[in-house]
Design brief:
It holds the Pfam family DUF150_C. Keywords: Cytoplasm, Ribosome biogenesis. One of its GO terms (cellular component) is cytosol. It comes from Lactiplantibacillus plantarum (strain ATCC BAA-793 / NCIMB 8826 / WCFS1). By secondary structure, the chain is an alpha+beta fold. The chain has two domains: 80 residues, RimP-like superfamily, N-terminal (GMP Synthetase, Chain A, domain 3, 2-Layer Sandwich); 63 residues, Roll (SH3 type barrels), CATH 2.30.30. Helix content is 26%, strand content 42%. It contains three helices and eight strands, in the order αββαβαβββββ. Strands 7-6-5-4-8 form a five-stranded antiparallel sheet, with no helix packed on it. A three-stranded mixed sheet has the order 1-2-3. β4 and β5 form a beta hairpin. α1 crosses α2. The mean pLDDT is 94.
Length: 158
């Protein structure tokens, strides 16, 4: 059900977001406990502010309320926010823009004995990512096939 909701709402949300020259980073419809959440993550160069999130929320809420049939028949919470410092990497442009940045990549199965790699993204191809990471005190490089990646995001280095 949640994928149908996302497929139905995505073009509506994308039109509103792009009309303001923002980027729709991600859209999800998820159940947490007893409640459903429709979450949009939006951004722009220099970052998004709370007023811009509220504006998109108001416009999307109005559009969704006017849609027939109702794309979300059950009660839900609409949340519009910035993707934050640990922005997810999903689209090709996200990966390209992350070259040279510190990333967190989770895998479906272990590679070289690890399921999680954190390091500097050094190269991106249509099928692979290359990360320079620190293994204890040694610098290592790993090339990961994209189909092995369960999730990828920017990370904050401490």
């Amino acid at each position: 059900m949640s994928s149908n909701v996302v497929e139905t709402i995505q073009p509506v949300a994308a039109a509103i977001v792009s009309a303001h020259q923002f980027e729709l980073v991600d859209l999800e419809f998820v159940r947490e406990g007893q409640s459903w959440y429709l979450r949009l993550y939006i951004d722009k160069p220099g970052g998004i502010n709370i007023e811009e999130c509220a504006m998109v929320s108001d416009e999307l809420s109005e559009k969704l309320d006017a849609m027939e049939p109702d794309p979300i028949p059950q009660a839900y919470f609409l949340e519009v926010s910035s993707p934050g410092a640990e922005r997810p990497l999903k689209k090709e442009a996200d990966f390209q823009n992350a070259i040279g940045k510190y990333v967190h990549v989770g895998l479906y199965q272990k590679l070289d004995g690890k399921k999680i790699f954190e390091g500097d993204l050094t190269a991106v191809t249509p099928t692979t990512l290359t990360i320079d990471y620190l293994d204890k005190t040694r610098h290592k490089t790993v090339t990961i096939n994209r189909e092995q990646i369960s999730q990828a995001r920017l990370a904050v280095k401490f």
